């Protein structure tokens, strides 16, 4: 039986691993653009002025820029209605240059988060927060969208290539 002393602690260098993954993604994005003329696009939607949310969103937009993913910034006012926000999500669903959508949480109290998240196209749900993606609803007559053949840069994006 293995004793505790048989196990050596390994220090994980998270910054190095993150940098390695980002470099790999940057290369995959470059190849995707070169081969198919398609640049992955991520829409980052933020509602209101919460400092923490703004900071997370800023980091996500910066990370996109670093690897060559085009980010579509949508900064919406705190007072936006649920119906208006859903309509913005629908616009992004229809935009062929937007391959991934994330809505920063939490949303203001007057907005039903689950309703908004359920309006994000399943194919563009980068957070995987859609009720179908988190398994709150059963998949009916649908093929799972995750395709292991897609490179990591587009794992959560769905880009149709000819
Ligand atoms: N659309 C989304 N909204 C929110 C998410 C999300 O994943 N998608 N998560 C949080 C906010 N958030 C990112 O947006 C986030 C919060 C906290 C952390 C985290 O790892 N915290 C660590 C500290 C990390 C560090 O210091 O480097 C911790 O708490 O231990 C990551 C992401 C809500 N909204």
From TrEMBL:
Its EC number is 3.5.4.9. PROSITE patterns: THF_DHG_CYH_1. SUPFAM superfamilies: Aminoacid dehydrogenase-like, N-terminal domain. Signal peptide: none annotated. The keyword RNA-binding does not apply. The keyword Cell membrane does not apply. Residues 12-127 form the Tetrahydrofolate dehydrogenase/cyclohydrolase catalytic domain. Keywords: Multifunctional enzyme. It is an enzyme of class 3 (hydrolase). PANTHER family: BIFUNCTIONAL PROTEIN FOLD 2, C-1-TETRAHYDROFOLATE SYNTHASE, CYTOPLASMIC-RELATED. This is methenyltetrahydrofolate cyclohydrolase. It comes from Salix suchowensis.
């Amino acid at each position: 039986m293995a004793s505790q002393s048989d196990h050596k602690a390994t220090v994980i260098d998270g910054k190095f691993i993150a940098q390695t993954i980002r470099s790999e993604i940057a290369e995959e994005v470059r190849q995707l653009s070169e081969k198919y003329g398609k640049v992955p696009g991520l829409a980052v939607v933020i509602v209101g002025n919460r400092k923490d949310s703004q900071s997370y969103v800023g980091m996500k937009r910066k990370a996109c820029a670093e690897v060559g993913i085009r980010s579509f910034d949508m900064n919406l006012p705190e007072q936006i209605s649920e119906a208006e926000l859903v309509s913005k999500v629908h616009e992004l669903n229809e935009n062929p240059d937007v391959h991934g959508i994330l809505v920063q949480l939490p949303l203001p109290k007057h907005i039903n988060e689950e309703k908004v998240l359920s309006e994000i196209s399943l194919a563009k749900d980068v957070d995987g927060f859609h009720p179908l993606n988190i398994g709150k609803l059963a998949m009916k007559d649908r093929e799972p969208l995750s395709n292991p053949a897609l490179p990591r840069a587009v794992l959560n994006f769905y880009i149709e290539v000819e």
